[in-house]
Each structure stands twice: as structure tokens, then as C-alpha cells.
Amino acid sequence: MTSTGTGTRDNPVPATPDTLPGACYWFTDPDGALCLSPGCMARIQDPDAQCLCDTLTDRLDRLTGRLRDLEERHRYANVWWQALSSVVRDHPDGQVIITETRARTGR
Q1: pTM for the whole thing?
Q2: Residues forming beta bridges with residue 14, ordered by sequence position
Q3: How far is CA 103 from CA 9, 95, 96, 100, in A?
Q4: What crossing angle do the helices spanning 56-90 and 94-105 adopt, rounded to 10°?
Q5: C-alpha distances in Å from residue 22, one per residue of 7, 39, 53, 83, 101
Q6: Which of 51, 42, 45, 41 has the alpha carbon at shortest distance from 9?
Q7: Number of neighbouring beta carbons within 10 Å of residue 24
Q8: Which of 63, 90, 97, 103 is the most buried (most CB within 10 A)?
Q9: What are phi and psi of 87, to 5 degrees?
């Protein structure tokens, strides 16, 4: 049988300082007292309120979107860099420009 209520009032998680979840959760302290560690303002104000903490799915969706944005920016920068490099190579003073750029950047 799988546990579906881990970290709830009815099924608190055993916790140590090294095993604390990142959102609201119920736990039993070493003396056996039932405690709530709120991770969102709703639970701070009312322990019985619905938890508004991010779920792992929400976090994954947000990070996946950010990664997609960063990959798109990288693709754009790469296209821009390739175009700029081509223009400099084709310029009559291209080699002088490249040499000066390397000297200024220490390469």
C-alpha cells in the first residue's frame, strides 16, 4: 500500500534537520509533538489552509521554460557571432581586427 498523505496532519513525516522538505509539511519532533512547518503565507496564517507552495511539477515547468528561453538566446547569439565573424574575416582589415581583438582579450 502506498502512502498518499506523507507530510500531512494525519500522516506526518519523521524529520531531522538534514531531511526537511522544501514546502509546508507536518512532522513529529523528537518528543513526539505534531508540528507544522509552513512554507507559504497561507499556512503561516492558518495551519488548516490550503498549501500554496510550489509543487515539484510547477518548479520543473518554470525551469523548463527558463531553459528553453536560455537555449533560444544562445541560438540567437551563435547566429549573430557567426555573422559577425564572417564579416570580419571578409573585411580587408580582417586579420588586423582579429589580431587586435586577441591582444585586447589576452588570447
Answers
A1: 0.47
A2: 28
A3: 65, 12, 11, 5
A4: 130
A5: 11, 7, 9, 45, 47
A6: 51
A7: 21
A8: 97
A9: -65, -45
